Amino acid sequence: MKSFAGERDRAELLARLKAVREDSRRRWGVMTAHQMVCHLGDAFLMMIGERRASDATGLLQRTVIKWIALYAPVPWPAGILTLPELDQTIGGTNPKEFSADVARVEVLIQRAASVTGCRTRRHPIFGRMSEADWMRWAYLHMDHHLRQFGA
Description:
Helices cover 50% and strands 3% of the residues. The chain is built from five helices and two strands; from the N terminus they run ααααββα. The model has no long low-confidence stretch (mean pLDDT 92). The radius of gyration is 14 Å and the shape is globular.
């Protein structure tokens, strides 16, 4: 099972990220490729505790949906809405210069991979998560958005 904790899995994601271009066309959703890059950065900041996201959880999200999202052997579906703080059209980081924003995400990938203590932070939808859960989520979240842009 792929995870952000695995060096090979992170290297694969990084190579796929570098394949995304500013003019890459989305397969679903409304984000541009540049907005997606900034969204990934914001999500990593949330993971390491440097960006707050509003609580949008409930019992079903913390149990059944969390398990399905993290451990069912199927890719995440298109059309999942994001939180306002991670949405580039509402409260997320505004895209500036594409290559600089990609470089920012590369740094955040390394920081998120080495973070300890993320298990003490709650995911805004899935609630309390173990470090292994966070690492699985990070891989799946990034994979989902890279697939969105054909990478």
